[in-house]
Structure to design on (321 residues):
């Protein structure tokens, strides 16, 4: 099959062990992201299969109309909110997707919490420039960690916080309550108390349509001036412009962010990068050698299975009829 892979930022796909699974296929890889439908269509025009690295390039009905050869979209994660399933099914395009290890995002989340709490990036840079101990960090032991959405990633983040001696409070829907209480953690009395009482708030919510903007300026304004807000999920969960305004107003006092509404962020062109009280990383949550072998290897397995006439992990099974 003719396979196109887009958005290989690190130019690493061909060096992965799992790339050997593509030996029998004609593979084209693009390392940058393009935005316009016509430009994307030009790159994808010969593709019979697309391998998408997470949501780096959204697929639209307009784009699909320009791809008459496309038979399969193989997604490197379970979420497919960026793919129009009805349009794919109508055009006979199979969409196949599967999950991956959630620990790697939880690890990055804790890397950001620790780095922001102890001013590690700033102190490392200061030392390189000849200075020594210029700030006072914040201890986490005894502080309150608020975990919004106690699911696959949230529960890992909470348990690490508990190991550090933090008090854990969860918030979310009924499923979050049941899972948190089963693990011995409390739900906050209400939404207001959750944001007001936390020293660190970390959100782990899937970006479904009803979750867009779920974190509001009012929520952020309730946080302590000493508190840290962490987002390793999706930028769209936060009301547009609310985090920048809240950080300028001093509630919360700090943030650590791994996700942005329009990615990739190039040329240092983002308002959060202008703020000294915001630690920004370039969407590294799932980016590790191990997770790429797992995520992308799984996507390649779906291509191979489809080519052999036995599609697996199909999200729109009605297309097979």
């Amino acid at each position: 099959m003719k396979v196109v892979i887009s958005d290989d930022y690190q130019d690493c796909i061909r060096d992965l062990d799992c790339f050997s699974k593509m030996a029998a296929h004609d593979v084209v890889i693009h390392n940058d992201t393009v935005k316009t439908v016509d430009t994307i269509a030009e790159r994808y025009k010969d593709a019979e299969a697309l391998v998408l690295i997470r949501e780096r390039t959204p697929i639209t009905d307009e784009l699909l109309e320009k791809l008459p050869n496309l038979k399969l979209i193989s997604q490197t994660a379970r979420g497919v909110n960026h793919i129009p399933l009805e349009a794919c099914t109508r055009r006979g395009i199979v969409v196949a997707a599967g999950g991956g290890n959630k620990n790697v995002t939880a690890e990055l989340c804790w890397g950001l919490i620790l780095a922001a709490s102890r001013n590690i990036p700033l102190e490392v840079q200061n030392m390189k420039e000849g200075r020594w101990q210029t700030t006072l960090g914040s201890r986490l032991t005894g502080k309150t960690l608020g975990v919004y959405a106690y699911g696959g990633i949230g529960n890992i983040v909470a348990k690490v916080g508990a190991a550090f001696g933090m008090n854990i409070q969860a918030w979310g829907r009924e499923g979050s309550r049941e899972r948190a209480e089963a693990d011995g953690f409390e739900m906050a009395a209400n939404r207001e108390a959750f944001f007001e009482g936390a020293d660190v708030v970390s959100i782990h919510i899937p970006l479904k349509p009803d979750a867009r903007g779920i974190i509001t300026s009012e929520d952020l304004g309730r946080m302590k001036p000493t508190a840290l807000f962490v987002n390793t999920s999706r930028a769209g969960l936060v009301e547009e412009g609310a985090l920048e305004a809240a950080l300028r107003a001093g509630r919360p006092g700090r943030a650590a962010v791994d996700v942005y509404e329009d990615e990739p962020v190039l040329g240092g062109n983002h308002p959060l990068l202008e703020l000294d009280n915001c630690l920004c990383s370039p969407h590294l949550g799932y980016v590790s050698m191990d997770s790429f072998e797992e995520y992308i290897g799984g996507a390649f397995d779906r291509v191979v299975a489809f080519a052999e006439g036995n599609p697996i992990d199909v999200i729109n099974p009605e297309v097979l009829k």
Residues 234 and 259 are 6 Å apart (CA to CA). The chain has two domains: 2-101+289-320, 139-280. The longest strand covers residues 144-148. DSSP finds eleven helices and twelve strands in the chain.
